[in-house]
Structures are given as C-alpha cells and as structure tokens.
Amino acid sequence: MNKLSRLITEDLSRRKFLAAAGIAVTALAAAGCGGNNNSSTTTPPTTPPTTPAVTDTDILNFALNLEYLEAEFYLRAATGSGLSSTDAGSSAGAVTGGSMVAFKTPAIQQYANEIANHELAHVRFLRKALGSAAVNRPAIDLTASFNAAASAAGIGSTFNPFQDENSFLLGAFVFEDVGVTAYHGAASLLTSTTNLAAAAGILATEAYHAGTIRSLIAQLGDPYLTTANKISMLRATAGGGAETTLDGSHIVAADSNSISYDRTTDQVLHIVYLSAAAGVVSKGGFYPNGMNGTITASKS
Fold first, then answer.
1. Which of 32, 114, 181, 225 is buried deepest, with most CB atoms within 10 A?
2. Using one digit for the tens of pLDDT, what is the confidence trace for 57-114?
3. CA-to-CA distance for 51 and 58, rounded, in angstroms?
4. What is the 3-state secondary structure (H, E, C) of the chain?
5. What is the chain's alpha carbon radius of gyration, rounded to the nearest angstrom?
6. What is the pLDDT of residues 21-48, one digit of tens each?
C-alpha cells in the first residue's frame, strides 16, 4: 500500500510538471520565442498601416502646381507680368525672376502670347474645379533653377530663357514635354470620368504646345538643337527615361507604338525639383520650398 501510494504521488507530480511545462511552451510560442513547434496557439497577424489613397483632388492640385509654373513662365515672357493675386491664391508664394522677351519674329511672339493665355486658362479652370480645395501658388524660382538646370545638363553655368526668343524656346522646351507626360501619368489615377475627360483635354493642348516648341527648335538647328537634347537627357535621367531625341526627322516625343510617354508623380517631382539622384526629394529647382498640396515629396 505504501508503494502504491508513493507511485500515485509521483505520477501526479509528473503530470503537474508536464502541464506547467506545456503552459510555458505555449506562452513562449505566443510571444514569438517558441522556435519551430506544432502549437495551435498563434499570435493574430498585425495589419500594416494603410497608405491613404490618392484622391482626384490630390491629383488635380498636383497638376495645378505645374500649371502655376508654366503660367508664370509664359506670362512673364509674353507680357512681363505674372499671375494676378486672384489667380495665384490669397497666400501665394513669391516668384523670382522672369521678364518680357524682346521677340523679333512675330510668329514666335504670337505663339508665346497664345500659350500664355492657355496656361492662364488652365490655372483658372483647375482652381474653379477644385473650389475651396485649390492650393495657392507655391514659391517659384525662374532664375537659379534655370542656372542649375543648365549646369546639370552640361550647357553652362548660367542660362536665361528670357534673354531672347531662341532662349525662350529652350526654356519652354524644359516644361512642355513634362506637362504632357504628367497628365498622361495622372490618367490612371483619376476616378471621376469628368476629371479624366478634363485632364485628357488639357493633355491634348499641352501636346500641341510641345509639338510647336519642338518643331521650332528643330528648325533652328544647332547649337539650339544640341542644347535641347542635353536638356532632354537630363530629364531622362531624373524622370525615368520617356524622351525622344529631337532632330530633323523626329519631332514627336512618343514610344515605339507612337503613344505619348507617361510619368509618375515621383518622376515629375524629380524633374521639377532638379534632383536626378534616387531618393526622397521634397523641394528644390523650380519650387524652392516645394509644391503645395498632398503630393509634394517623392517616395523614391
């Protein structure tokens, strides 16, 4: 009887030990420290934070930032004055540089006037479409930015696109192809068919501008043609390629299917911020303090 009692006592002790050990192993597994085991107890997966979806308002404001830049460039070249306070917003940033170009060719002057009016109309259209959500014009630099672009492209240490009409065409070349690719890239992000139709309409107008500028530069020949292609190479480096060498036989910028190139917002930001290096960039170049709105910094 004493032997039987002792065996029972020892068996109960072993069961208590094994039960306690089992609880400890389960706890370790739940804490992620159990290694490889067959325990059925697992930690519920952690849901990663979601990135807020880009809205049509975000995209249209991104486009508005670009239109502010183009409007300021063309208006100052054509008239000597930029956007009014009504068109720029109540808390608009300052614009540095820009002056009326002394045009000698009536046709080029007419092109400048027409494009300036188009870009002004785009600003007004987008501001009206956005209503109270429209961002103000950010600070814009039309002096140091062009100097930096010229240096980066290997053109020289300085470049003034307002010096004469040929220089104006090169300055316009900097912007027009970027506008086309930016609107094309935005097409897949817009959810409203109304907004998509409007963006497609603006893209078409920007493509007319780009074709005009590219044709005029091709007619000028060198050194302007070579300079334009150096600018194109700089854009390609910063903006993921999407360029067609400009020469007497190739005017239109398009891929092998004759479809205009498109760029992501990240690629556009790297171009207008004049930052060809990979990585996050949030300001610089033509926007010394960055753009306004939600899409203001590249992700890579």
1. 181
2. 999 999 999 999 999 999 999 999 999 999 999 999 999 999 999 999 999 999 999 9
3. 14
4. CHHHHHHHHHHHHHHHHHHHHHHHHHHHHHCCCCCCCCCCCCCCCCCCCCCCCCCHHHHHHHHHHHHHHHHHHHHHHHHCCCCCHHHHCCCCCCEECCCCCCCCCHHHHHHHHHHHHHHHHHHHHHHHHHHHHCCCCCCEECCHHHHHHHHHHCCCCCCCCCCCHHHHHHHHHHHHHHHHHHHHHHCCCCCCHHHHHHHHHHHHHHHHHHHHHHHHHHHHCCCHHHHHHHHHHHHHHHCCCCCCCCCCCCCCCCCCCCCCCCCCHHHHHHHHCCCCCCCCCCCECCECCCCCCCCCCCCC
5. 30
6. 443 333 333 334 344 444 455 556 655 5
Six-digit token pair at 64?
């508005």
